[in-house]
Amino acid sequence: MTTSDVIVIGGGVIGLTAAVGLAESGRAVRVVSRDPALDTASAVAGGLCWPYRVRPEERAVAWSVRSLHVLAELAACPAETGVRMVPGTVAEAGDGPDGWHAAVPGLRRATPDELPRGFGQGWRARMPLVDMPTHLRYLEQRLAAAGGTLQRRPFTSLAEAAREAGTVVNCSGLGARDLVPDVAVRPVQGQVVIAENPGVEEWFVAAGGHAETLTYILPQPYGVVLGGTAREGAWSREPDPATARAIVERCALVHPKLAHARVLAHRVGLRPARAAVRLEAERLPDGALCVHNYGHGGAGVTVAWGCADEVLRLTADTAP
């Protein structure tokens, strides 16, 4: 059995980003994940850098601001990193600005002519939009370049991982329900439609509060991502045809040409939601350090780099 200085459990964007930060700081890192990155919920994500369904708010804003700056830098090489800076609109009811609104460079109120019919107010900004499959491959390559390794197998307990490393970073997402175990982690199902892009150049999001139906349109190199849903406690990963039709209809109210765009794929992912992200360190019974980093809901790519910085600090501050 191979051993590592640090084992990171979880091969999605949260786990890979934390692993990159640790490996580039000089730690010997092994990422252990049951599923390949492209089979995780991260691969289904639309990829817009904007905090959504993540608490606690103050910490989430700080993590998001850090990630915003990192992703903006990565956008200099979009083909390699999967990150582009794209203008767009968030339609919402809140008056703001909150901590996030105040931190986003160039964020401004949308004028009435910049809003689709039926939306009374919103915000305009140029934000990172991430092609998640490309970005996940980039993170794996960056990890390898820093000396980190990847292994595909499940752990049945944190104690099992601790037998192989002095530090365990638990980025198991929804898997934390069984691994920790933590029944406070629950799925929020998201369904999207991937369609041929009929000429959409900007992103659009209307996602207020805890509604089960959302409207978002995210142009990606492989097509346009149309969303979506946010169904609490739904475990199915099978796309529902009626839901898909409703998604296309909502998006076509914003861009009518989407009504006739050829559908390329249907995807469903389960966001790992929790009342608050668990990002903290504890000692396991055998003395190994465990840093928990899970429960990011629909904001994985948005908070990943900020959370990775905190993981790095916690592993340094509490190491023996």
Structural features, described:
The protein is of the alpha/beta class. 31% of the residues lie in helices and 30% in strands. It has ten helices and 15 strands. It has helices at residues 13-24, 41-44, 57-74, 78-81, 99-103, 132-145, 158-162, 176-179, 241-254, 300-317, and strands at 4-9, 29-33, 83-91, 108-109, 122-130, 149-152, 165-170, 186-195, 203-206, 213-220, 223-229, 231-232, 263-273, 278-283, 289-294. The strands form two sheets. Strands 3, 4, 5, 8, 9, 10, 11, 12 and 13 form a nine-stranded mixed sheet that branches. A hairpin with a 6-residue loop joins strand 9 (203-206) and strand 10 (213-220). It starts with a strand and ends with a helix.
